[in-house]
């Protein structure tokens, strides 16, 4: 597969090889072999700070683990004496008495030392440690990240920083997330801190648009139409959300401001069906599907106020879910029934150069671009009965696919996180449909919602 | 002692008494002219005990329908013992009481006192309630358009991922067309919504388009059979409004349908 990625032009081979080395796996850098091992020593707090430390420690661990950048050194292997600050590191001394014949001289430990962590059984490359304390009514975290493979503590420090938050569980989560974000940033990981997931929930008895933090906290209802409101999509600049609602009878497009929460003007075409699907990368136009001017749902674009509608596709088949390449803004992936059961296709934004991407087996739906504009995630019934979707990733150029979920319930609507490493999707694993996140290699699946049914996630850009 | 000295002594004693009286009076009042003495209390002869008197005794309203209440009000003076019959019993000298006579009733108030007694009566006339209104006329033979739609216009069913009119749907829609033509002729202004629905297996987005196609193909079929197109509106509910939520083919089939409902 990598070979296909490399252009044949000889002059480009070196550069392409370099790119391939940067991205050993098209899944987005999520691969098991090359990840550094990290140990995270449970931290303690002085005085009143201690009561928030179990929240702090679990948040820090989960944030690092779910980023997928590290191999997590298991806590059960850690030395008993955990360092709390750089001054705790004491080099071991060699014994002054001569060892007996045949014995190797063993250093005498004087306290925590780097090799406690770098050697087996921990075998970590990095160690996060520190402590918290109350200071002027605030929770202060003193956090360090050490490269424990270095010979001495002076050379080992990667991060040494203070973090401030309120004296509460929320404050403990805040400082843990900020510390985790700094650690991840050292390794090229983009923090999801501040990013929101928009989704549809029927927990009030009606499908409404909701939002939540990337980890499932702060679930908030955004619309109150008491109708069916679904299919949200968010503009690239994170200022607008478009969705379909039956509030006025036939399904039509509503656009709300994410800044004020208010409804904005959007002129729907007189049609039995209008539904938004995506925004262009400049956030100026909406991609949508509509029955305007015909009897099949077809792909259109329009300005964000509903002016200047332009029809893109024109076939006697249902065509839905246009998603524009976030990097180029020039090509679309979409779902079409033109060949029978719905499959994924790509085309230019002017409708030319149409190519089918999936091989015709089963039903392939719900395409979503990776932020790099090269990969898509989608839902496919390949190998399963109709309706039993699993999440796949495809490299659009080569059409190579990787399956991420394997028949655990019905998995739909995968959407990439802004970090390009995580995917949020819906899964029906019991009586209800819930939202989950996972890494783009299918690991670290985590359920975000529990109330009612929750579906149609969209991951907004990081606003911070 | 002789009679003369006795008389002098008597006169002197009277004089002394008079002077003493004058002296004490002079000491008490320094005012020149003493006020007139208070008038002696008029000793009235005790009046004979007053006769009890019923000042008022009313029933408001005096005419009621059976089951309604009337309020008795009375004011009595000079009575120690007041009773009203018909089960009301002893009462205070003034007051009111609600009564619920089932038939016309005369209430007698008897006021007894030391001076005698007084009696007053009041009558509450009870009218029988009006007879119930006649039973509503039997349902007219002509049913509403909504009823006909509900009972006689049936759902048309579709194959998976298809919007073609199946053989069985063709028969159903042909029958529906006759009913609809009649309903539209009898009910000017009545509109029908053709709803397209899908089973849960396809994606919600694709099913939005598929439900729309099912609704429009059902409408087109009806229009070909002469149903006026301007009386039929279409809407897709995709898979958002299932009639059945089990995961089996019989349930899926129930959901893959065109359904007919009154348009708003």
Total domain units of chain B = 2
Number of strands of chain A: 30
How much β-strand is present in the residues of chain B? 25-35%
Topology-level CATH name of the largest domain in chain B: 60s Ribosomal Protein L30, Chain: A
Assigned CATH class of the largest domain in chain B:
Alpha Beta
Distance from first to last alpha carbon of chain B: 141 Å
Sheet with the most strands, sense and barrel status of chain B:
5 strands, mixed
SSE-based structural type of chain A: mainly beta
| CATH C-level name of the largest domain in chain A | Mainly Beta
Parts with pLDDT < 50 across at least 5 consecutive residues of chain A: 1-29
Distance between the termini of chain A: 36 Å
Oligomeric organization of the protein chains: heterodimer
Average the pLDDT over all residues of chain B and give the rounded result.
83
Principal-axes shape call of chain A: elongated
What proportion of the residues of chain A is helical, as a percent range?
10-25%
Quick gist of this model?
The complex is a heterodimer of chains A (464) and B (264). Chain A has 464 residues and is mainly beta. Chain A has helices spanning 2-5, 10-22, 53-67, 114-118, 153-156, 169-186; strands spanning 37-40, 44-45, 71-72, 126-135, 138-147, 157-166, 195-201, 208-213, 220-221, 229-234, 240-245, 252-257, 263-264, 274-279, 285-290, 298-303, 310-311, 319-324, 331-336, 343-348, 355-356, 364-369, 375-380, 390-395, 400-403, 410-416, 422-428, 433-439, 446-447, 454-462.
Can you walk me through this structure?
The complex is a heterodimer of chains A (464) and B (264). Chain A is mainly beta and 464 residues long. In chain A, 13% of the residues lie in helices and 36% in strands. Chain A has helices at residues 2-5, 10-22, 53-67, 114-118, 153-156, 169-186, and strands at 37-40, 44-45, 71-72, 126-135, 138-147, 157-166, 195-201, 208-213, 220-221, 229-234, 240-245, 252-257, 263-264, 274-279, 285-290, 298-303, 310-311, 319-324, 331-336, 343-348, 355-356, 364-369, 375-380, 390-395, 400-403, 410-416, 422-428, 433-439, 446-447, 454-462. In chain A, strands 1, 2, 3, 4, 5 and 6 form a six-stranded mixed sheet that branches. The radius of gyration of chain A is 26 Å and the shape is elongated. Chain B has 264 residues and is of the alpha+beta class. Chain B folds into two domains: 53-127, Immunoglobulin-like (Sandwich); 145-262, OmpA-like domain (60s Ribosomal Protein L30, Chain: A), CATH 3.30.1330.60. Chain B is 31% helix and 28% strand. In chain B, helix 2 runs antiparallel to helix 3 (167-186) and helix 3 crosses helix 4. Chain B is rod-shaped. The termini of chain B are far apart. The A-B interface holds A 207, 228, 230-231, 244, 246, 249-251, 272-273, 275, 277, 289, 291, 295-297, 318-321, 335, 337, 341-342, 363, 365-366, 379, 386-387, 389, 412, 455-456 and B 160-161, 200-206, 208-210, 212-213, 215-216, 234-238, 240-241, 247, 264.
């Amino acid at each position: 597969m990598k070979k296909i990625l490399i252009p044949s032009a000889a002059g480009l081979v070196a550069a392409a090889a370099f790119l391939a080395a940067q991205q050993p796996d098209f899944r987005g850098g999520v691969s098991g072999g090359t990840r550094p091992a990290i140990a995270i020593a449970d931290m303690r707090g002085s005085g009143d700070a201690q009561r928030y430390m179990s929240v702090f420690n679990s948040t820090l661990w989960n944030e690092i683990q779910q980023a997928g950048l590290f191999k997590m050194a298991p806590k059960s292997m850690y030395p008993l004496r955990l360092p709390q600050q750089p001054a705790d590191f004491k080099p071991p001394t060699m014994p002054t008495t001569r060892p007996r014949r045949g014995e190797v001289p063993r250093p005498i430990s004087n306290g925590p030392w780097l090799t406690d962590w770098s050697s087996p059984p921990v075998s970590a490359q990095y160690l996060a440690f520190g402590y918290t304390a109350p200071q002027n009514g605030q929770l202060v975290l003193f956090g360090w990240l050490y490269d424990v493979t270095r010979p001495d503590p002076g050379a080992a420090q990667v991060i040494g920083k203070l973090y401030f938050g309120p004296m509460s569980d929320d404050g403990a989560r805040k400082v843990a997330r900020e510390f985790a974000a700094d650690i991840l940033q050292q390794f090229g990981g983009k923090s999801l801190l501040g990013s929101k997931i928009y989704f549809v929930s029927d927990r009030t008895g009606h499908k409404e648009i909701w939002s939540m933090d990337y980890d499932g906290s702060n679930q908030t209802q955004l619309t109150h139409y008491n109708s069916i409101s679904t299919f949200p999509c968010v503009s690239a600049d994170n200022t607008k959300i478009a969705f379909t609602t039956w509030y006025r009878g036939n399904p039509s497009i509503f656009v709300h401001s994410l800044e004020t929460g208010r409804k904005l003007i959007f002129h729907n075409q007189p049609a039995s069906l209008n539904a938004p699907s995506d925004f262009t990368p400049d956030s100026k136009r909406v991609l949508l599907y509509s029955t305007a001017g015909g009897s099949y749902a077809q792909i259109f674009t329009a300005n964000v106020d509903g002016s200047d509608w332009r029809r893109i596709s024109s076939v006697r088949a249902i065509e839905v879910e246009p998603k524009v390449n976030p990097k180029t803004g020039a090509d679309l992936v979409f779902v079409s029934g033109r060949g029978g059961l719905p499959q994924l296709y790509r085309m230019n934004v002017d409708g030319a150069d149409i190519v089918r991407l999936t091989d015709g087996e089963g039903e392939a739906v719900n395409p979503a671009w990776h932020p790099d504009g090269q990969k898509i995630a989608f839902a496919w019934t390949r190998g399963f009965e109709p309706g039993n979707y699993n999440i796949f990733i495809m490299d659009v150029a080569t059409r190579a696919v990787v399956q991420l979920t394997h028949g655990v319930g019905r998995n739909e609507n995968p959407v990439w996180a802004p970090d390009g490493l995580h995917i949020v999707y819906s899964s029906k694993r019991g009586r209800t449909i819930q939202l989950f996140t996972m890494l783009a290699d299918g690991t670290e699946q985590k359920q975000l919602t529990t109330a009612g049914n929750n579906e149609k996630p969209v991951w907004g850009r990081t606003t911070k | 002692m002789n009679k003369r000295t006795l008389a002098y002594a008597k006169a002197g004693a009277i004089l002394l008494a008079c002077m003493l009286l004058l002296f004490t009076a002079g000491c008490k009042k320094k005012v020149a002219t003493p006020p007139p003495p208070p008038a002696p209390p008029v000793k009235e002869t005790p009046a004979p005990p007053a006769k009890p008197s019923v000042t008022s005794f009313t029933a408001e309203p005096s005419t009621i329908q059976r089951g309604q209440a009337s309020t008795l009000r009375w004011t009595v003076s000079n009575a120690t013992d007041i009773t009203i019959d018909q089960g009301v019993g002893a009462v205070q000298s003034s007051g009111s009481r609600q009564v619920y006579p089932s038939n016309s009733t005369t209430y007698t108030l008897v006021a007894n006192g030391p001076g005698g007694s007084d009696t007053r009566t009041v009558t509450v006339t009870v009218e029988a309630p009006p007879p119930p209104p006649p039973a509503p006329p039997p349902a007219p033979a002509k049913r509403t358009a909504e009823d006909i739609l509900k009972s006689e216009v049936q759902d048309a069913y579709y194959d998976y991922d298809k919007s073609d009119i199946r053989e069985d749907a063709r028969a159903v829609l042909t029958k529906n067309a006759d009913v609809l033509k009649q309903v539209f002729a009898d009910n000017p202004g009545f509109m029908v919504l053709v709803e397209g629905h899908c089973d849960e297996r396809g994606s919600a987005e694709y099913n939005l388009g598929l439900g729309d196609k099912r609704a429009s193909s059902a409408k087109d079929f009806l229009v070909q059979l002469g149903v006026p197109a301007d009386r039929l509106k279409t809407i897709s509910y995709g898979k958002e409004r299932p009639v059945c939520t089990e995961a089996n083919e019989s349930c899926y089939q129930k959901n893959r349908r065109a359904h007919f409902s009154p348009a708003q």
